[in-house]
């Protein structure tokens, strides 16, 4: 790389209590370069970027920015305002947008004098429009952000940074919420902007896009930079090994003969006010020894589908049968009795009762069973014993079985839920975004458990936005778009991606 | 029936409606400003009392009427600041802090009043704001008595509606306040201060609320007495929802309540022999609840209302 340096992070360290989030991490960025920052969850990627942007104060180390003449200027640490002024823009995973305001107002926010009685909206608009033209990133400027699609919101976020004359753009998992097509178009825009001299750091744990779109790769593990290489010389197995510290045990999906149907939905319709809670004539069947993958961009009816199958939503039309028996009055109780195990989308909110202990959460779906209770009184010893056994076999780590479940990390909460579901030996497992937010190791563990249940004879309905996950785990694939479900026979990413946008595949 | 029609077309009815609505207009605007920034301010009932007492006492001690208005606003700002510090940087429950401020501000006002005047039985009077009586305009039929024979504080309230609307929708400050009430991260990410905006909005909103109290002692009446706020603050909290956080609709809501109240007084004298008076006293509140039920279903809540925000936690 012959381009001049624009940024160098020098031995940045940060601890949170006894946890070392970053240990003397150094990183250089050149003009016009796309640098991918790879690593598992908790490897310290976001912490590092938050120090760059001034959200966190580093314990030690420094940051230098270089001007056009190549002179180094130290960045004032711990002040987002200083980072903004120095031309650093950050797009967080959770968008920082006011949904009641238009895109234009969101972009202008903070760059106009607060106490002036007038705003020069015409000038703001002209500048934003010229940026849109140059970068190819477009978004409707006068619609409240709340009515924009996720992809449009992300473009507004990037426009916000460019409006502030960012020379360095940090993107935290930019493609997590996009369709493959949207992601590709985002990276093409990034390509166009880097030719104009913008430098980009993007955080990701999707190897495919990192290999396709970055110039250089840096890998973090446990807060330490463990590797750095030019993308052209990188190979995916080597990087994966670097990220997790060992080869990831990917369980191959052995071919299996599907058995009897365990779940059948017949023309289930749910009338809702928005696309996210609408289903139109959804028909699907999951057999024993089978994983059915539901691919789709978030907000296309996945939560409605999961709600119907877990009994939280009663369909307006259509029938649900479990193991051949129609469920007359679907409610959560009936669904659990019928043998449906649920891994909910929002594990913190719907998967556990955070204030209750780990042990209590492990038996929360079967409190009425003899053995767990006698004459209405809980059998505390049996509950504790159950928790000790499950914690060991599912490797649930945390402050102990009597600690509040909310104190566990995301990965361990998911293990708790897996333990609770799999121990019931369900006929059907409803797994809604089961690996979202988990690191590679924990995600692989979830996949392994799901395939194990399939081998044992359960049917699995896997709803996921991660196409790679669906391709690796599912026997059959259906795509959900705007409440409609269509089966796809292809395994081609492009084709499935098209179906996800509603185009006929 | 004829009587009702006669009431509805009479200028004195509409003049009374606007007069009764005036303290509510201040109160709703104040509550709206606080809530737009994401902070519910249940201190309003006590801040009304504090404004009523402080404004009246300043005049009684020799200040001019506008001096009294200023003192009332400062008293409101002071109690607003307490609420803001407790709920914004400290992130305490907005309900608990607000009710605490109401109890505290009410008691402090009564305490100061009692300490200053230990032995009076009838509250001392001040010379209140007079009707403006603008020449020519006040002689217009209907509009004259309704609009142009009100006191300066009523005019101030109407000006405030326009001012609050303009600031919220047409200035960078207002856009920032709306943003901080929807998603504080959006403001923080752009380098603005979440705490500064919220504290500022709560303090300014509380000063507005106190002007509603000041109207009671300095325009509607000419003295301070206990219990005179009489739930007006709580009505404002409901009216903000009715108004769906829009200043124009806030004015409408306050006028509607004022009209209900003016109507019940008149109906009482008309048919008071047939129906117990309490029914009429209840009427404005019942009608407000009905209006609220209809309006609140479509209300556009600030998304971050009641949610504290802490720096460095995303």
From TrEMBL, chain A:
CDD domains according to UniProt: ABC_Carb_Monos_I, ABC_Carb_Monos_II
Keyword annotations: ATP-binding, Nucleotide-binding, Repeat, Sugar transport, Transport
PROSITE patterns noted in UniProt: ABC_TRANSPORTER_1, ABC_TRANSPORTER_2
Source organism superkingdom: Bacteria
GO molecular function: ATP binding
InterPro entries: AAA+_ATPase, ABC_carbohydrate_import_ATPase, ABC_transporter-like_ATP-bd, ABC_transporter-like_CS, P-loop_NTPase
Domain ABC transporter: 7-247, 263-504
Name listed for the protein in its UniProt record: ABC transporter ATP-binding protein
